[in-house]
Amino acid sequence: MRAEATSGAAPEVALELDLDVFDGPFDLLVTLILRDEIDIWEVRVSRIIAEYVVRLADSGEFDLDATSQFVVLVAALLEMKSRLLLEDEVDDELDDLDPDEAAERLLERLVRYSQFKSVGGALGRRWEEHAARLYRCTPVPAALLRRPAPAGALPRETLPAALAPLLREPPAPDTSHLADLAVSLVKELRRLRVILDDAGEFTFAGVAPEGRLERAVTFFALLELHSAGEAVLRQRRHFGDIVVTRVARPAALAAG
Amino acid sequence: MHPLARRLEALLFISSRPLPAADLAAACACAEAEVAEALAELRAEYAPARHGFVLHEVAGGHTFAVADDCAEDVRRLTGAERPDDLSAALLETLAVVAYLQPVTRAEIAEVRGVSSEYALSSLEERGLVEQRGRADTPGAPLLYATGDRFLKLFGLGSLAGLPALEEFALGASEVEEIRARLLSNAERRRA
After folding, report:
1. What ipTM does this complex have?
2. B112 contacts on A by Cβ (under 8 Å)
3. Which CATH superfamily is domain A185-255 in?
């Protein structure tokens, strides 16, 4: 994929990156690379993929569209990077210039580089001379760091007075701000059994409540129905909807 | 010896890190100018070849170090090893960081003409280079700089002790020689 092909479509992959050369959302990184404001050589695509996989695992949700878009963008980055491996394209910058101009540009770079190369040599000589020096490193004796104990014996009451606050039972933490779970497993089982009895079959998406926690309870209730042999669970593809079909009610429940 | 010089000697003896003149002045409740004078006396007392250790000004402070000609004996006693030598690539990268700091990885690569990823991480591992925030440019790349360990291992009191970068510039005749070579290459390309 060429840069022009992706520059029109706004990528919508919400992934925050923390790379050496870039700190921000993935889409911004792609935009900056396309605008040549970040050198793609400096971007480790494997790190981006690793971060995305971790984020997927954390979120527990799989958005097929967003993931497909991510794969396309990452593939584009890899292609751009691999194209740069071809010598012709790397030297484009100098090829576009007049040979004299290119020579001047190259001269400038060489002069600057040779300066730092010489500094490196000088630093090497300093290293030879100083790096092996053994500076004073003995730690301050612990006794000197310790504060002196109060002179004389402490009164007998001091110890219990110091310990008493530690032995006192702390007040129970206030949990009033935590909302109670709206659905209990027993209640949810009862609700699902009614639906199963009436309809004979339902889908997870059809009956699951909105909240994440409540959905989890519904899911546990499904597993409970399955392990009790009351229902069969089917899922055609990964992350697809779950179809729940009634088998038969256990004898004990049927009698009750 | 001046009484203040003896007091400073005691502070330097007990400290495990280089002590800045300001800290010495605060501890002795005296002016920094007096400390500077007393330090000069101490430096003369602990000049090389007089004692088994020498007074150095390094990494922003003053500290004792084993005299260089006694270091091998100390190594035999303690088993301390000499630090590994730095390769030319590491020294070059370190030179760029030391003079242009704080500097991004891309800027280092631009000067050296090659990726300096390995060199930088190796210098970071050795504690010679450290991350120093992020640049206020697109992508907010990491910035790198040298720290106190760099100053200590290169025997520098501060970064101001580095020789001027201009001292390492190529001479006019060398630049002309390279220019002539490049231009003759350019001529060949045109032909």
Report:
1. 0.86
2. 113, 116
3. Structural maintenance of chromosome 1. Chain E (1.10.10.580)
